[in-house]
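REQUEST
  id: r-88c1
  op: predict_structure
  target: DNA repair protein RadC
  payload:
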Amino acid sequence: MTKASRPAKRIQVVSLRMVRERTSLLYPQRKITTPKDAANLFHQFIGNCDREVFCIMTLDTKNQPTALHEVSSGTLNASLVHPRETFKLAILANAASIIGCHNHPSGDPTPSPEDVELTERIRDTGSLMGIDLLDHIVLGEGNFISLKERGHP
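RESPONSE
  id: r-88c1
  status: 200
  body:
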C-alpha cells in the first residue's frame, strides 16, 4: 500500500469539563441559614432509608450548597464514618464548609454518644484543614435534631 492509498487517520479530541449542577431545583433559596434549611434539603436527598446513611453538604463561602454527597451507608443502627472520606469529598468539591447529616431509621433523632464523638472528630479535623463543620443534623421520622443547637460542633 502506498502512502497515497492509505486512509487518513482521524484524531478525535475529546474535551472533558467538570460540570457543577446547581441545586436551584432542589433548593431554590440557594442559601442555608438555619438547621431546618439543611434538614429539609438532606431529607430530600436521603429520604426514608431503611439503614443509616451519613452524608455531607458542601457549601461555598456564602453558605450556598454546592453538592450533596453520601459518605457512608451502614446497617439498621450504625454507619462507619471516617473523617478521611468525609474531607476527601469536601476537598474535591472545593468546599469552604460542610454540614454533616445522618438518619436514624428507628425514627428517634436523639443523638447517641457515638454521634457526638463523630461530630467532634469531624469538627477537629475540619479546623486543621480550614473547612468548618457548621452543623451535624440527625434526621428522624418527620423531625430532626441539630447538634450545633445542642452545643456540640
